[in-house]
Amino acid sequence: MKGRKPSHVMNRDAYNAIAEFWDQTRHAFYGREKTYLDTFLHSLPVPSPILDLGCGTGRPMAEYVLNRGHALTGIDQAVRLLERAKARLPAGAWIESTIEAFETEDRFAGVVCWDALFHIPRKYHPSILARIARMLIPGGRLMLTVGGSEHPPFTDTMFGETFFYDSFPPDKVLSMLAALGFQPLIAEFMNEPTSGRDKGRYAIVARMT
């Protein structure tokens, strides 16, 4: 749409604007998230290096990983969310960057990209997933959410701010991950798509073969 902010700017500005509300709201696990994270971390030696792409304030994912004794690097483009992560979880390494632009020579035992990929236009998803695969050591883990259905890009509001969403459907994402050498450990709907505004959300925990 003419005059609309680029998607990464829209989401960055929106998350910065709602940082206080988000911090108060997003602090505990939802649904089976703890099960996913326990599966993701299972059998990883302590400490293992973990990368959290789209870490937000660090709660609850990064906080749990750090409390389990692992070394965590968090990436987010919303500086007001990162400020809260740095203040609350000083043991983590916190880097301001978009997921699309983040590059590193470091290798990780696991990468979390939770409720973040679907804020990025899907044309970037194949290259992001391929980059994640390259960042992982052999046998490394991925914990990921994607949209739950096939739909065009859209915007929706949260705490009065507008956010951008886009995603391949789950079967397409699973096919891309298989081609990159991932084996699913968990692949399930967190919430099914409806005929209304909810396009669904799908959780994946996978291991590099």
UniProtKB/TrEMBL annotation:
InterPro entries xref list: Methyltransf_25, SAM-dependent_MTases_sf
Pfam (any one): Methyltransf_25
Residue stretches spanning the membrane: none
GO biological process per UniProt: methylation
Methyltransferase domain ranges (all copies): 50-140
GO molecular function: methyltransferase activity
UniProt protein name: Methyltransferase family protein
Keywords, sorted A to Z: Methyltransferase, S-adenosyl-L-methionine, Transferase
Methyltransferase is among the record's keywords: yes
